[in-house]
Design brief:
Largest sheet: 5 strands, parallel
Radius of gyration: 15 Å
Order of helices and strands: EHEHHEHEHHEHH
Low-confidence stretches: none
Shape: globular
Number of helices: 8
Distance between the termini: 9 Å
Number of strands: 5
Strand order of the largest sheet: 2-3-1-4-5
Strand content: 5-15%
Mean pLDDT: 94
Length: 171
Amino acid sequence: MNLVFTGFMGTGKSKTGRIVSERLKRGFFDTDNLIERKVGYSINDIFKRYGETSFRQMEIETIKEVSERDSAVISCGGGVVLNSVNIAALRKKGIIINLYASAEVIYERLKSESDRPLLRCEKPLTEIKKLLNFRKTFYMDCDFSFDTDGLSAAKVADKVLNNDTIKKLLL
């Protein structure tokens, strides 16, 4: 089984995923990084050059490829959940784990970053709240959910790997 991390930006998917993959000695795949390497541009530049619709199509193709792996740890971009095709592909061989945090914590984690295209606006905290509200039901379509407020990625990895049900599924 693959372990698939979903959630909003700034919830710790990539950092937690890397730690989990190291502890389990499994390959790690970050879908945003895979897209950047394939296209040769940052996510920010892809949004600027091609727009969100083109980026989402690249995301679908990348999810289709990475979801075919076995025993991998996959960190998905925050918007992957918006397309049911992505979730269906990931669920075939994966356990979907949603990481979440409050809008205020996400804002604090991301406020100094300039490479988040969906937050390049006048009121980023308001935009985070709006996006979280819109995506709420999409993020709820998961097998497990973990709150990352006030926790390091290592502590979140501990929570994931110490979950008895997840342990059984990984056997």
